[in-house]
Structures are given as C-alpha cells and as structure tokens.
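Hi team,

Below is the intake form for Leucyl aminopeptidase from Sphingomonas pseudosanguinis. Please confirm the fields before the structure is written into the shared record.

FORM ID: S-0412
PROTEIN: Leucyl aminopeptidase
ORGANISM: Sphingomonas pseudosanguinis
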Amino acid sequence: MNDFSALLQPDRGQPAQSVTVLTADGFPAWLTRQSAATRALATAQRFAAKPDTHLLVPHVDGIAVIAGVADPASPWALAKLAESLPAGTYRLDGAEVGANALGWLLGQYRFTRYRKGETIGDRVLLTGDVAHRDEIVRIAAATAQVRDLVNTGAGDLGPAELETEARDLAQRHGASVTVTAGEALARDYPMIHAVGQAAIRERAPRLIELHWGDPAHPRIAIVGKGVCFDTGGLDIKPSAGMRLMKKDMGGAAHALALAGLVMATGLPVRLHLLIPTVENAVSGASFRPGDVLRTRKGLTVENTNTDAEGRLILGDALTRAGEDNPELILDFATLTGAARVALGPDLPPLFTDDEGLAADLLAAAASEHDPVWRLPLWDGYDEMLKSDIADMVNAPDGGFAGAITAALFLRRFVPKETAWAHLDVFAWRPSGKPGRPKGGDAYALRAAYRMLKGRYSRA
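The structure came back. Fields below:
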C-alpha cells in the first residue's frame, strides 16, 4: 500500500532542499543570473533544462535542484524528480505545488504484491496549500487503487475478491452492499449469469451493488465492467490476446475508485455503485455462439460472439441502475479493441447523447490533463445490431465501427430520459512515462471526478 499522505506535507518552514522549475526556453535567462560555479556545473553536465532532466547544485545547506519541465502546469511536471531524487524533503522555490503534487506522489507509486520494492526512502514535498492537500492525496490513492487492482493477477482477483473490495470500501464510508448470486442471479440478471456460468463453481458470477448517501439528494449511478479474466469463451482468444486479460475488470476498478472519491469527499448525492463481475471461462457450461439470451430489460439478444461479453453483463447492470431513476449514469469498461485501434491506449472514447454532460466531461478532462475524446452514438449504425431471430445481436458481423456499435448496444439498456456517459477505457499503460509506469492505470478517472464535483459540490 502506498502511503501518499507521508509524501506531501504542510510547509511549516522546516528544513528542505529547494527545487527550481524551468523550461528550456527560460533556462538561458536564468543561467545568466547564476554564479560562475553554477554556470560551470551546468555546462559540464550539459544541462539545458530539457523536460524530465535535473541538475543538483551543491551548496552549504545541502543541494539545490534545478528541474527541466515541458509544462510547469502539468500534473506530471515533477514526476520524474519524484522517481529519481535522493530521499529527503523538498520545497519549490518561489512557487506553490498546485497540480504538480499529483505527479510527485504517483512518481513514487510501486506495485509490490509479488516482489519487494526498492528501499530508497521517501521524497517528501512541502506544500503551503494545506486546504487542497487531502484532495490530492485522495486522488493519488484512488489512482493507485486502480493500478493495484488491474496489476493483480487473475488467480488472486476474481468475483469474490472484487466483492471484498466493495465491502471494504462500504465499511470505510458507512455504505451498504447487496450481492446477487446463484439462482437469484440466473432469474433476475440472466446475461450476467450466462457469461459467468462456465466458472460458476470456482468463481461464481454476481452483481455487487453499493448504496451510499442521503436518499433526498440527486441520485447517480456508477457502473463498472468486472470481467476478472476473459478467455473469450468458446470464441476463444489466442494466447497473445489472453495475455493481459487480467485487466478486463479495469472498468470495475475505475468505478470502485470513483465511488470512493465521491464518498470520501462527501458529495451530496445518493450514490449507487454497480459491479457486474464474472470470469468468462471455458467449460461444458459455457454459453455458446448462437444462443439467444434473455435480459433483465426483457429484450432478447442473439449471441454472435462469446468474446463480446462485457456489453452483456453491463446491459443487465445498466437496466438495474435505471430502475431507480437516477439523473446520471456513468459506466467504465475495458470494452473494445476497436477503441484502441481508433484512439490508442491513452485516449478513452467518450459516448453520450447528452450535450451538457459531454461539455462538462470534456471541460473537466482538459482541466485535469486527463483527456477523453468524444465519439458519436451514430444512429445510422444502430441497424447493425439487427438479428433475424432476436431483438438484437451483441456483436455485428464485419467489425466496422466496433466501439460505436458496442456503445449503441449499451444505450438500449439506459432510460432515454437519463443522462448517461460510457467511457471505453484501456486500463493499461503499454510503456512507462514519468509518474505512469507500465502496467495498470486509471484513465478519465480524474476527469469524471472533477465533473461530478462541478455538478454536485456543496460549494
């Protein structure tokens, strides 16, 4: 567990090494104001304040750190420093920490469940903005929660473990949890049951629901896809495609982390968190291509691909979310490879028919340096979901517009009068960047939280 609160401390004038932040453009003017010794050291080290570089300048009280950054306003500006400086306490020279604190904290994130981390000591940053310190720590911890859950091997994280995670979260915040499994799941949530029935003895499927907040407050629902491992089912994936499928519960990880932020902040909402969780396994009990599945909504779905299972379990969960008439539903899901082909790993597509919600999410994404890109819920592609024998198919033939048709499938389970947004997140970083190591990661989490705060904050 990463204790981020220890790494960001109130500035009470305690001894600390100074950190000066420069851009490459501003470096020459700064250098002319320095001593001959500092200029000589910079020349000898070929330091020019390029992004993610730093220079250590010895002085009588220790060292001064000169840091090169691309954008001083970026949350990641200090992340490389946090990864590489000696253990100690640091203070920004002539500036407040601000958004930089997030990268400082997450630059020291380590996933140590399966091996010991390096013993390198803490790099502590001082902040004068004590009012926002707890908020930054909460956001860093929520990001780390997503990373930890996604990085955990599927052998150690199945539907039961996701239930434990939800119950622990509820206990910390005074929420209630209900779980539907077994015969009740088969009766009331038939698509969740169908996807998970191949693993029903070892890793039984379930719908996890958490309720929190005053029933008089605006009702919102957060839904997360919880496929703890995805073989593809009988439409089995090749080994290379299965390699990272421990991350197929990344939507659930995002939903749990966002729900935790909502409750920890005390937003005046009535929160309903829903995690449909399964393992899409292969056995004699697997659901089959060509099966016609019944749904909680009463529609029928011709299953054309057992590897398009995430939208099935989300369909039942979205139906349940809509039954309580929320004014807003957000869902997170590692849903389609088509989204990655279109936008790559770092840019989650956003789908919504609600223009106000789209504007709020896009503005929050820009403000938080947590980008999303809006893709259309194109009505003209809705006919691709037609079936000859059922109300719809789950995966159209041909593969065209795969992220859009998946979102259109989900839309059929959302009440038309409810504002709804779907985020198709990757939940994985294929290569590392400062503060963002290779492995599980949160995408659009900060944007969604900022949007919710903007809509529902008491202030």
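SUMMARY LINE: The chain has 15 helices and 20 strands.

Thanks, M.
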